[in-house]
Structures are given as structure tokens and as C-alpha cells.
Amino acid sequence: MSQASDYLNEGVRPREVWSWACYDFANSGYTTVVVTAIFNAYFVAVVAGNATWATFVWTAALSVSYAAIVVTAPLLGAWADAHAAKKRVLAVTTVGCIAGTAALYFAGPGNFAIAITALVISNFFFGTGENVIAAFLPELAKGSALGKVSGWGWAFGYVGGLLSLGVCFAYVVFAQGQGQTAEQYVPVTMLITAAIFALASLPTFLILKERALPQRQASGAYAQTFARFRETVRQASRYRDLARFLVCILLYQAGVQTVISIAAIYAQQAMGFGTQQTLLMLLVVNVTASIGAFAFGQFQDRIGHVRSVAFTLACWLLTTLVAWRADGPGLFWVAANLAGLCMGASQSAGRALVGYLSPEARRAEFFGLWGVSVKLSSIFGPLTYGAVSWVSGGDHRMAMLATGAFFVAGLLILAGVDPERGRRAAEAG
């Protein structure tokens, strides 16, 4: 049986890894309930009244928040590295996301200003916090075990998403039994999600250590931040495999983020699922996603990070084709669970490879660039889906087929990534 010393850096205790994974557990409820399962479909059906442009407006609002992350993530990462302040930044983003999620309680029919503002704020802080917590991974795990430990985090995260969605599902069933409408019970699920996020994130702040040391200051805090970022851009050629993989992430994550943001919308608009049926499906998908992240993390370090990512992208392509061909619940359930397995595995593998290719002194900064790639993909991926759906008069099947092209492009770019060459460049600094 493996000992902790086999996969953790010197001085790192297993309870720290658990506390780090608790953040994935905590924040997954936001993605699952707000972006994927409940509020997205609620926005289209109730807030926007099933207007033909509703899906496009939903994706556009998410895009605004992702654009803000793109602008700020590299600079925040550089600042966090320079000041050894990742936990401080994480605390601010956590409070911001929880407050924004709770504010969605006030989004009712026609309340576009409240719904969009709260969505943009909550998703901005969620995405920023996601980048920061990822930057702790290389401090905890050895290079040879980044995939394994990353898989643990993602797996535990999907358990958290499952818990949040399960509690919300139970409340929805209860509320519907009381004769309540979506206008009444969906806002309450936003408060439930915010509360679970707040409670589940506490171990992270109480146990996880900030191991980085403050680095030598430039003339001022902001001057140093901009100087470090300019230096990263100037030296980008030294990390060509990391740069190429970031482009790969930009492409394939456009597909992943599209699936995440429109899952419930597709289920209800294209498949005719009701609220309970949609939530039940997504509950099961969270189970398969957790299994996928954990199981894949056990062997991805052995087969190689690039091969791991390639395998998951091929599976993602298959998923979109199955969903496109589905004309009833049976085949769509197959596609949904394939998506769950792919989601857990691809997110874990991608995060691990970024850590493997990143120089030690700039981990938060490079994970900030990882966040930039993911968030850029989160802009044009869902927007592409929304635009195709709008232009085609609400043809969600055509929009799903277009999504598959992102995984093909990601595979083509991935073919040029040499992980060992990239690792040597990272170790050289």
C-alpha cells in the first residue's frame, strides 16, 4: 500500500490534501446548481420567459464574467506569487461567490438586471477562486503524482456537487409536493447552495498552509505585478510546450464549458425533460464524474499526461455525437453519463499537466494563464452554441454538433505537445 511520502512533497500531511480537496467539494455546488442544473434552465424558462434569444443572453452573461477573469487572472496570479498571498485572494473570492449566489434569490420573472448582475459577480469570483486553489496543487504533490492528487480533488469535488444538487433536488420535490412553482422554489435553492459553499470551504482556510515565501519587491506592489507578467510573456518561448497546451485547453475547454453551461437547457429544450427528470439525470452524472476523476487519476501518471488528455478528448467527441443522435431519453442518458466520466477525467488530467509543465517560482502565475485559457474558452464556446441555436431558430441539436468541432481541434493541437521537453524547460526555470 502506498504511503503519503510516495506522492506528497516533504512536510505535507494528508490532512492538508484533504483540506485542499474540500475547496473543490465546496465550490462544485455552485457550478452544478447555478451554471449546469437549475438556474440556467430557470433563467431561460422563467426569467426570460422561453424567448428565442434566452440561451444566447445566458451564454453572453457568462461570457462577460469570463472576460473579466481573463483580464485579471494573470495579474492576480503574479501578485499572489510575489506576496505569498494565495489564501488571502482565495478568501476574497469565496466571500464574493457566496454573496453573488445568495443574491440570485431575488431573480424572478423579468428581473434581468438582478439575474445577470448576480450571475456575473458570482461566476467571476468562482472562476478566480478556481485558479487560485489549483495553484496549491504543485506545493502539495510530487511531480510524479500530480495526476493522482488532482484526481482526488476533482473526485471529491463532484461529491460536493452531488451533495448540493441532492439537497436542492430534495427541496424541489418537497416544494412541488406543496404546489409551489419554479418561481418559488428555485430562489431557495440558491440560498442552499451558498450556505453549503460557505460551510464546506472552512477546512481549507483552517488547515491548508501557504508554503510560498514573499518574493523580492519591485518599486511597488502593482509595479512588481505588471513587471512579473511582462517577464512571463517575454519568456513564453522557453515554455513552448506549456504554451501549446494552453492553446489546446482553449479549444477543448470551449466544448467542455459549453456542455457544462447548457446541460439542463439542452435536456429540457431538445429532449423535453421536466425539472425533476433533469435534476435526477444530473445527480447521476455527478456520480459518474466523481468516479471518472478518481479512477482516471489512479493511472494517468503511468500512461502519461498527454495520452490521458488525448483519451478524454476522444471520449468527449463521442459524447457530443451520441447526444446529437439521441432522439429519446435512453440514448441521451448514455451521452449524459459519458459526459460525466469525461468531465471528471479531462479536468483532472488538464490541471495535472499544467502543474507538470509549470516552473516552480511561477505556479500561481501559470495557473492564472491556465485560467485565462479556460475562461476564454468559456466565452466563445457557449457563445458559439447560443449563436447557432439562435440563428437556427432554436435547433439545439445543430448547436451540439458544432460543439464537437472544439474537441477535434484540441486533439490536433495536443499532438504537438512534448511533455518531457516541457518538464525540462520548467525545471530549468
Describe the protein.
The chain has about 425 residues and is mainly α. It has a single domain (about 15-210, about 220-429), classed as Growth Hormone, Chain: A, CATH 1.20.1250. It is built from 17 helices and no strands. It has helices spanning about 15-35, 40-45, 55-85, 85-105, 110-135, 135-140, 145-175, 180-200, 200-205, 220-235, 240-270, 275-305, 305-325, 330-355, 365-390, 395-415, 420-429. The protein is globular, with a radius of gyration of 20 Å.
Question: What are the main properties of this structure?
Answer:
429 residues; Growth Hormone, Chain: A; 0% strand; 81% helix; mainly alpha
At a glance:
The chain is mainly α. It has helices at residues 14-37, 39-47, 54-83, 86-103, 112-134, 137-140, 146-177, 182-200, 202-207, 221-234, 240-269, 275-303, 305-325, 329-357, 363-391, 396-414, 419-428. The chain has a single domain (13-210, 221-428), classed as Up-down Bundle (Growth Hormone, Chain: A), CATH 1.20.1250.20.
